[in-house]
Amino acid sequence: MFQDRNDAAHKLAEILKKRQFHNPLVLAIPRGGVVTGAVLAEELDAELDIVLSRKLRAPEQPELAIGAISEDGQVYLNPHLAGLFSSDDDYLNRECRHQLVEIARRQKLFRTVRPPAVVVGRSVIITDDGIATGSTMLAALQIVKAQQPREVIVAVPVAPPDRLKEMRRWCDEVVCLQSPKEFWAISFFYEDFSQVEDEEVVELLRSAAFRGKVRIEN
Prior knowledge:
Layout: H1 5-16, E1 25-28, H2 32-44, E2 47-50, E3 53-58, E4 61-70, E5 75-77, H3 89-110, E6 123-127, H4 135-145, E7 151-158, H5 161-168, E8 173-178, H6 198-217
Parallel strand pairs: 1-2, 1-6, 6-7, 7-8
Antiparallel strand pairs: 3-4, 4-5
Helix pairs in contact: 1-2, 2-6
């Protein structure tokens, strides 16, 4: 069990430090993933940015993701779950519109601090504080792969084995600290899994941008 997101991220960083990267970029999935990403970026001397994707909630079961939508509007549906619910196109369209509104809100809030980073030709590490269904991560992977990175690494503290298998189809490498067969929720693996607020994400992005500016000027 991890103490908190910082503890998990430092343990992830110890593994990633053994690897060589080309002009590394850490892309974090808000909000919790930005805490993880900020630690990785600092430890790996990498640039930090965000990748915005949102889960698509199952009808009447908002905690269950039947898929995800990326900030460019691309939709990924989880084939293992989407078929369990009636194929209600009206519901899916409404849910996509709803999540795109939230993505737009986050773009307006976060992009004033951190304009989109250049991805092409770089080693890209996509991170979150954990993977449950994997829908949001898969949507993020599709966004990033379309931007022609040199390589893509998924780095997370915890995820179920079957979801990691799916991730490997979309990236060059997966680094995961814990992958238990008995998996209920990401929060079960943290002593402190407090909600991360928008203000903390903004401050982490601002601090990372400042460190990068100092590094360039020096």
